[in-house]
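Homework help board

Subject: predicted structure for assignment chain

Our instructor gave us this sequence and asked us to write out the predicted structure in token form, then describe one feature. I got the tokens but I'm not sure how to describe them. Can anyone check?
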Amino acid sequence: MKEVKTNAMRLLDKQKLAYQVHTYPHHDKEAVDGVSVAAMLNEDPAHVFKTLITQASSKAYYVFVIPVAAELDLKKAAKAVNEKAVELIPVKNLLGVSGYIRGGCSPIGMKKLFPTVIHSSALDYETILFSGGQIGTQIEMAPQLLADLIHARFEAIIR
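My token output:
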């Protein structure tokens, strides 16, 4: 069976960056929570990351990539991007802002390259897993390669 390439994978291929694809079972367009995804892939949840999109009081969008079992600390997140406050965007706005649906939001290949912060724990691992751009697909790659590609920084941004 031919592997379906997502926008994220095409971008990685174009940049000739090393990555691995992992797939897990899912039902149609139903998002699977990250902790369940980690379990299905037999991975430590601390090693699997989710992509969250926020909007600041300035109306700017910011992306945060954090371990699936963790909760984004909105105060730390705002401070990391020099904003007074950030809020998670409503799920209904996700596709319009990022080009991705809930459960399939990858930090790679969004409609625009938003300022992105990856939780510093990613640097504890040789590779991390994150959404490949569709539900049922995860990409595994070195966190520094990911950060270089999307111009992200590493900061402590979870509770």
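Reply (TA_rk): Your tokens look well-formed. For the description, you could write something like this. The helical segments are 7-14, 34-40, 74-80, 91-98, 143-150. That's the kind of observation they're looking for.
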